[in-house]
């Protein structure tokens, strides 16, 4: 593998560990837990893994001989910076317990477990990937572990390799699957522990015990650097409005964090849009008003941050999409016979008056995406909707109307960006390198202490890494019942942006000033070497949430 100078230098970086994970570690049990909601239903579904206590790791002088143990690891779902360090932490943790322990990686996600596709991860391989971005050490995949036949196929290879514990590194769905698997293996007394690790750059897997999901820090710093570069360009040319869509289909944590880092003129928060029952026109009018106000000062430029999932949070759009899904599913054959040039009019005639009016107001390209680009289940593929173009086109139309009415005298030209893949495999920041390594090491300690159905937890993360608190949290504690594909299922509750939370309040207190002034911040690239106050900073979100 050819390495850059940065990779060579980063390979020598030794991630910092919480004091509780150094030396000999003992697990201290805390209070018993219950699920965040729907306690009776969750308890009934998870009789073997429900109500377990919180775990905190502390140092001990006791000497314990641990038998050699084979452990499996899976990377599940979308990539997030720091995955390789989680695996490094697991490897170093189990080797410290017993040098003869082995780590096996299942290739391309949970599908590797079912298909018996694996490799042993030796020291030579692990050392190639320390402190690097990506999931390419074993690859990732989106196969869901939900069926008994999958659990049994997985058990075959686990028994063959004598694997006693499996670590699943993933987001809320992947960790829900990990919990189901842990329950199944516990109920059958298979002798296989299952541990989860919290990963998702979207930041929507968090609670009182999981302060942040790994990768969020690096991804936001990566996006903030590029947004800062665009803002500097924007402030230099002074002729474009940049509409920037950011990752975050289910929650707006990335958009909010980036706004706190770069101070854009506008940042839309999907959760606020839903809470205020805002229409698409309300959002467009709000952006157009800021454009007009800045134009009145001679500033025909600015930046707008947009979360990827915005459309699904606009109540009226959600109702339109629901009716479209039902109508097109029921009339698929008839619709397919309509000429493309007549399809829009056909849909407008068939929809309810409220939804027909909204559909008619949409730009041609977006209307087409809503009606034609369906997923295999026949539903709108909201992630494909170019929300940044939708908003800029509608703002342009609104400004043109205002110009005719003499309400607007500026010039409006837009540029469009979508930042997603650019941040998912970035080289992890010092924070994520340390945090991920600690999560992996804590997972090895959970395994050593015989735990299953737990998620690795590292808290107090705005303090120096040595003061972080490592432990484990029962996955059932985070669960509630939600409707999925027409059925009520147990899932980890998604963490949305809280409008009463400190990060949103800090943003809301400043946004009117940012809208008028050009008070951009240019964060620059992630720094790996230098003073701690530059290199080891956690996100603004974490600092505000913890009152730092």
TrEMBL record:
Pathway: Carbohydrate degradation; glycolysis; D-glyceraldehyde 3-phosphate and glycerone phosphate from D-glucose: step 3/4. Diphosphate binds at residue 78. Its EC number is 2.7.1.90. One of its GO terms (molecular function) is diphosphate-fructose-6-phosphate 1-phosphotransferase activity. It is found in: Cytoplasm. Non-allosteric. Its cofactor is Mg(2+). Substrate binds at residues 200-202, 239-240, 247-249, 308, 421-424. Pfam families: PFK (PF00365). One of its GO terms (biological process) is response to glucose. Keywords: Cytoplasm, Glycolysis, Kinase, Magnesium, Metal-binding, Transferase. The active site is at residue 202. Residues 70-340 form the Phosphofructokinase domain. Mg(2+) binds at residue 172. The record marks 199 as: Important for catalytic activity. It catalyses: beta-D-fructose 6-phosphate + diphosphate = beta-D-fructose 1,6-bisphosphate + phosphate + H(+). One of its GO terms (cellular component) is cytosol. The record marks 173 as: Important for catalytic activity and substrate specificity. Homodimer. Belongs to the phosphofructokinase type A (PFKA) family. PPi-dependent PFK group II subfamily. Clade 'Long' sub-subfamily. Catalyzes the phosphorylation of D-fructose 6-phosphate, the first committing step of glycolysis. Uses inorganic phosphate (PPi) as phosphoryl donor instead of ATP like common ATP-dependent phosphofructokinases (ATP-PFKs), which renders the reaction reversible, and can thus function both in glycolysis and gluconeogenesis. Consistently, PPi-PFK can replace the enzymes of both the forward (ATP-PFK) and reverse (fructose-bisphosphatase (FBPase)) reactions. This is Pyrophosphate--fructose 6-phosphate 1-phosphotransferase. It comes from Bacteroides stercoris.
């Amino acid at each position: 593998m050819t390495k850059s100078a940065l990779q060579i230098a980063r390979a020598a970086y030794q991630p910092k560990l919480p004091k509780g994970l150094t030396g000999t570690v003992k697990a201290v049990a805390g209070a018993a837990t219950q699920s965040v909601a729907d306690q009776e239903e969750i308890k009934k579904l998870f009789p073997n893994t429900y109500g377990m206590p919180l775990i905190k790791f502390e140092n001990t002088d006791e000497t314990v001989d641990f038998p050699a143990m084979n452990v499996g690891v899976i990377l599940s779902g979308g990539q997030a910076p720091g995955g390789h360090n989680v695996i490094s932490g697991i490897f170093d943790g189990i080797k410290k317990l017993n040098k003869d322990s082995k780590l096996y990686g299942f290739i391309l996600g949970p599908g590797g477990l079912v298909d018996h596709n694996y490799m042993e991860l030796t020291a030579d391989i692990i050392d190639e990937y320390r402190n690097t971005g990506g999931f390419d050490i074993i690859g990732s995949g989106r196969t869901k572990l939900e069926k008994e036949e999958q659990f049994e196929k997985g058990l075959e290879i686990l028994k063959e390799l004598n694997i006693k514990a499996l670590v699943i590194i993933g987001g809320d769905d992947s960790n829900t699957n990990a919990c189901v698997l842990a329950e199944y293996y516990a109920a059958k007394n298979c002798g296989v522990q299952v541990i989860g690790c919290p990963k998702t750059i979207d930041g929507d897997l968090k609670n009182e015990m999981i302060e942040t999901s790994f990768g969020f820090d690096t991804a936001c710093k990566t996006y903030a650097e590029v947004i800062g570069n665009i803002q500097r360009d924007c402030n230099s040319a002074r002729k474009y409005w940049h509409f920037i869509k950011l990752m975050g289909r289910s929650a707006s944590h990335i958009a909010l964090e980036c706004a706190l880092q770069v101070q854009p003129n506008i940042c839309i928060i999907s959760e606020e849009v839903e809470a205020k029952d805002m229409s698409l026109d309300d959002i467009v009018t709000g952006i157009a008003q800021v454009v007009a106000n800045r134009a009145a000062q001679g500033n025909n430029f600015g930046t707008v941050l947009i979360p990827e999932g915005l459309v699904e949070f606009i109540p009226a759009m959600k109702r339109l999409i629901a009716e479209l899904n039902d109508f097109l599913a029921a009339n698929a054959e008839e619709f397919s016979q309509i000429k493309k040039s007549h399809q829009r009019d056909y849909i407008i005639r068939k929809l309810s008056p409220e939804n027909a009016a909204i559909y008619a107001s949409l730009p041609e390209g977006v209307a087409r995406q809503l009606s034609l680009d369906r997923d295999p289940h026949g539903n709108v593929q909201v992630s494909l909707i170019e929300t940044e173009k939708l908003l800029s086109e509608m703002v342009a139309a609104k400004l043109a109307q205002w110009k005719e009415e003499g309400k607007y005298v500026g010039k409006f030209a837009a540029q469009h960006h979508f930042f997603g893949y650019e941040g998912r495999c970035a080289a992890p920041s010092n924070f994520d390198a340390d945090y991920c390594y600690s999560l992996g090491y804590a997972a090895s300690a959970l395994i050593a202490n015989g735990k299953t159905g737990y998620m690795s937890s590292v808290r107090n993360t705005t303090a120096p890494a040595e003061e972080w608190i490592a432990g484990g949290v029962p996955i059932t504690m985070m669960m509630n019942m939600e409707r999925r594909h027409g059925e009520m299922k147990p899932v980890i509750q998604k963490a949305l942006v809280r409008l009463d939370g400190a990060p949103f309040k800090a943003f809301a207190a400043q946004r009117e000033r940012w809208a008028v002034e050009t008070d951009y911040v240019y964060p620059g690239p992630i720094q790996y070497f230098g003073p701690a106050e530059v290199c080891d900073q956690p996100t603004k979100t974490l600092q505000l949430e913890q009152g730092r």
